């Protein structure tokens, strides 16, 4: 059966800035009708009563670790985690081993993702060869091979001239640039946010200025080159201020935050230890407030998760040696709901804009991110009232590195439909 | 018409009418080059010094031949052989040469403005054979002569200049010359090599390269220096040739007429242009070399004899 009918849901239309009570009919992977009272005897029916039905969530920052570190995650386990988390599309970062810096690696990964066929897997190609920050990759050839964005995520592009040239050059190919902002000289071997906790615990600190100073540099570069620039995993209040000021000057830069930077602060490390060790480090309450206000004011336009799975061995033991990162793909949506909906920062319509419509616009995915006829039938159904406890040992991701184990969260995705196929069903 | 310029420092100093005079004279020499024997005596007894501080084969030989065909005595200096290697200053070297009492000096130098600088204190005619990233006036004149001889009407002509505009004196001189004759200019190539301020040349920047080519009737490809890639202006020669090089599938026609292909040479086959296109009927690349000789004869004669 190719037809699918989602009945009785509250349909989120981010492209029209409104919600309606309606049914959604899907035929052969495409949305064909959205209106109340649709009946089609040939369609499989999903009852979405009491649920929100919107365009599928798009996560523009995940690490699926393939190739090279499949013991942490691979395309199959990552795709399963995405489905469970309500995501229909993901954008994988290129800091794999080897990095995604050649057309061959891109072709291989896209072909693997097609074979698996669970979610839409999009790839980010490296900005610099080998992520070494020295020489630009073949931007055009990488795009031809299927990459849709550029990033040296995990590393900052230290060489200002390289980045300036890249920003200028990549415009020709309309390739967005996703930047990991961290002055490596200032960051040094920093492990946690500079402040009382770092001092008390004797951990090397990673000051906020490491992020702020590079963001300032790159905003100036983006202003000069008019490149399509996006700052990922923002963590400081000053970053938000800087971006807002440049946006006011007409610079079209965007940014995202992770759920953990909205829900945890550096004091959380006392409670969660290595599981709360991330880059950029968890900051303090003033930053959390500023990030939330940045979302509310439309400065931060995208929610991402920086899903960073690691093995148990990578995360255990000495804090200084433990890997940075949190596995969060399966719980990112309710985490965001807790940080933003429960706090009254935004409503569900805005939520969908930040997690579906805006990411699709930024990446140029013209058939995704909106719910209207003719669009790809990528749909997430979410029950805003469901409560669940986070159980890390039930994760389908290989990464169990997560500080949120045992948290009670509300607002979980209950169905994930990708290209018209039900990948997760309402239970 | 009496020629009012003592030197040829750039195309910028010439009016459209003056360019046309040089083209007309160059055209006559180009016809005459088909004959043998060729030797003329028009500039017999005059001395020409070729002073090249940058590597050059075709321009230096072209000036040397042009002088000799007109009966001049020609002396070649290259940087490697000069006293500059012994520590003599540039100014002293040039002043020493001035005492040699030559009539004309052809100079190429890596610094923009050197021909203008030496013209202020040297007594003879200075011809700029390429100064840094500023001007290469005889290249522009030979390009214009090539177009003229191909029957191109400058007032209905659109030239797409593609590649390293940023570092190119050829692009600057050619654009200025084309504008003075009424042509339209399009620039395209990697955005890193299309400089800010390019609007001063009164052309239009069009991306992508395919669209720039589509709108032009002459496609002028600039030489790509390998060091530009090493300096990070574009990722690799493979990527350059794929996206910015002229290929068989891009040499589309214009109302049934092949687009003309030009290049200042030497050509990096397979980089700026597919090897198969270099010798095609629509390629004017080899004819540019012959026109270069003719136009340099015209320039020498005009400067020394005064029109």
From TrEMBL, chain A:
Q: What pathway does the UniProt record associate with this protein?
A: Pyrimidine metabolism; UMP biosynthesis via de novo pathway; (S)-dihydroorotate from bicarbonate: step 3/3
InterPro entries linked to this entry: Amidohydro-rel, DHOase, DHOase/Allantoinase_Hydrolase, Dihydroorotase_CS, Metal-dep_hydrolase_composite, Metal_Hydrolase
Domain of life from the UniProt record = Bacteria
Sorted alphabetically, the Gene Ontology BP terms of this entry are: 'de novo' UMP biosynthetic process; purine nucleobase catabolic process
Q: Name one GO cellular component term.
A: cytoplasm
Report the sequence similarity comment from the record.
Belongs to the metallo-dependent hydrolases superfamily. DHOase family. Class I DHOase subfamily.
Q: Name one GO molecular function term.
A: dihydroorotase activity
Q: Which residues bind Zn(2+) 2?
A: 153, 180, 233
- Known EC number: 3.5.2.3
Q: Which SUPFAM superfamilies match?
A: Composite domain of metallo-dependent hydrolases, Metallo-dependent hydrolases
* Cofactor detail note: Binds 2 Zn(2+) ions per subunit.
What is the source species? Answer: Atribacter laminatus
* Binding of Zn(2+) 1, residues: 61, 63, 153, 306
Cofactor(s) this protein requires: Zn(2+)
Keywords for this protein: Hydrolase, Metal-binding, Pyrimidine biosynthesis, Zinc
> So where's the catalytic machinery, residue-wise?
306
Annotated positions binding substrate: 63-65, 95, 310, 324-325
Question: Where would I find the Amidohydrolase-related domain in this sequence?
Answer: 53-423
Function field: Catalyzes the reversible cyclization of carbamoyl aspartate to dihydroorotate.
**Protein name (database record):** Dihydroorotase
- Reaction(s) this enzyme catalyzes, per UniProt: (S)-dihydroorotate + H2O = N-carbamoyl-L-aspartate + H(+)
Automatic annotation (TrEMBL), chain B:
Arranged from A to Z, the UniProt key words for this protein are: Pyrimidine biosynthesis, Transferase
Explain the purpose of this protein.
Answer: Catalyzes the condensation of carbamoyl phosphate and aspartate to form carbamoyl aspartate and inorganic phosphate, the committed step in the de novo pyrimidine nucleotide biosynthesis pathway.
What EC class is this? transferase
List the InterPro entries. Asp/Orn_carbamoyltranf_P-bd, Asp/Orn_carbamoylTrfase, Asp/Orn_carbamoylTrfase_sf, Asp_carbamoyltransf, Asp_carbamoyltransf_Asp/Orn-bd
Q: Where is the Aspartate/ornithine carbamoyltransferase Asp/Orn-binding domain?
A: 158-302
Reaction it catalyzes: carbamoyl phosphate + L-aspartate = N-carbamoyl-L-aspartate + phosphate + H(+)
- This protein is called what? Aspartate carbamoyltransferase
Provide the species name.
Answer: Atribacter laminatus
């Amino acid at each position: 059966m190719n037809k699918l009918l989602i009945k009785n849901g509250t349909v989120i239309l981010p492209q029209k800035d409104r919600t309606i009570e309606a049914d959604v009919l899907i035929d052969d992977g495409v949305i064909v009708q959205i209106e109340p009272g649709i009946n089609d005897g040939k369609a499989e029916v999903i009852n979405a009563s009491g649920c929100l039905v919107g365009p599928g969530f798009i996560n523009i920052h995940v690490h699926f670790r393939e190739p090279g570190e499949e013991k942490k995650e691979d395309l199959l386990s990552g795709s399963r985690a995405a489905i469970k988390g309500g995501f229909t599309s993901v954008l994988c970062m290129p800091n794999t081993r080897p990095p995604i810096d050649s057309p061959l690696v891109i072709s291989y990964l896209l072909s693997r993702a097609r074979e698996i066929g669970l979610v839409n897997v999009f790839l980010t190609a490296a900005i610099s060869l080998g992520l070494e920050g020295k020489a630009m990759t073949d931007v055009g050839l990488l795009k031809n091979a299927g990459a849709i964005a550029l990033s040296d995520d995990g590393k900052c592009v230290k060489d200002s001239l390289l980045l300036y040239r890249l920003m200028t050059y990549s415009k020709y190919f309309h390739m967005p640039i996703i930047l990991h902002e961290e002055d490596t000289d200032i960051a040094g071997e920093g492990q946690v946010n500079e402040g009382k906790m770092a001092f008390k615990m004797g951990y090397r600190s990673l000051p906020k200025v490491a992020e702020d100073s590079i963001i300032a540099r790159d905003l100036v570069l983006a202003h000069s080159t008019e490149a399509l620039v996006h700052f990922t995993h923002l963590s400081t209040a000053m970053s938000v201020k800087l971006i807002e000021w440049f946006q006011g000057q007409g610079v079209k830069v965007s940014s995202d935050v992770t759920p953990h930077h909205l829900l945890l602060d550096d004091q959380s490390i006392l409670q969660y230890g290595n599981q709360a060790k991330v880059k950029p480090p968890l900051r303090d309450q003033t930053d959390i407030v500023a990030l939330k206000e940045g979302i509310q004011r439309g400065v931060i336009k995208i929610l991402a998760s920086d899903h960073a799975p690691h093995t148990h061995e990578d995360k255990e033991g000495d804090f200084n040696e433990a890997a940075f990162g949190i596995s969060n793909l399966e719980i990112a949506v309710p985490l965001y709901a807790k940080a933003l909906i429960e706090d009254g920062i935004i409503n569900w319509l805005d939520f969908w804009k930040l997690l579906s419509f805006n990411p699709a616009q930024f990446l140029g995915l013209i058939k995704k991110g909106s719910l209207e006829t003719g669009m790809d039938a990528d749909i997430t159904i979410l029950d805003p009232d469901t409560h669940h406890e986070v159980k890390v040992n039930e994760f389908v991701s290989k990464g169990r590195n997560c500080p949120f184990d045992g948290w009670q969260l509300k607002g979980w995705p209950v169905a994930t439909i990708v290209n018209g196929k039900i990948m997760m069903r309402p239970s | 018409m009496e020629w009012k310029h003592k030197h040829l420092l750039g195309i910028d100093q010439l009016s459209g009418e003056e360019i046309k005079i040089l083209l007309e004279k160059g055209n006559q020499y180009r016809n005459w080059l088909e004959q043998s024997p060729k030797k003329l005596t028009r500039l017999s007894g005059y001395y020409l010094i070729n002073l090249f501080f940058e590597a050059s084969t075709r321009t230096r030989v072209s000036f040397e031949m042009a002088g000799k065909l007109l009966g001049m005595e020609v002396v070649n200096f290259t940087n490697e052989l000069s006293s500059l290697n012994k520590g003599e200053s540039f100014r002293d070297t040039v002043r020493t040469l001035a005492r040699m009492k030559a009539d004309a000096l052809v100079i190429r130098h890596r610094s923009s403005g050197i021909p203008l600088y030496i013209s202020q204190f040297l007594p003879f005619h200075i011809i700029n054979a390429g100064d840094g990233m500023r001007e290469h006036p005889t290249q522009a004149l030979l390009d214009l002569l090539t177009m003229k001889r191909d029957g191109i009407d400058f007032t209905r002509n659109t030239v797409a200049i593609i590649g390293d505009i940023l570092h190119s004196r050829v692009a600057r001189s050619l654009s200025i010359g084309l504008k003075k004759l009424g042509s339209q200019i399009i620039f395209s190539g990697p955005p890193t090599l299309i400089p800010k301020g390019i609007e001063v040349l009164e052309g239009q920047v069009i991306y992508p390269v395919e669209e720039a080519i589509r709108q032009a009737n002459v496609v002028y490809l600039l030489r790509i220096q390998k060091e530009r890639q090493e300096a990070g202006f574009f990722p690799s020669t493979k990527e350059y040739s794929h996206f910015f090089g002229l290929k068989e599938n891009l040499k589309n026609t214009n109302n049934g007429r092949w687009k003309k292909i030009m290049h200042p040479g030497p050509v990096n086959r397979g980089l700026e242009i597919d090897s198969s296109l270099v010798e095609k009927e629509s390629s004017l690349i080899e004819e540019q070399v012959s026109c270069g000789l003719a136009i340099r004869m015209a320039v020498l004669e005009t400067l020394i004899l005064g029109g």
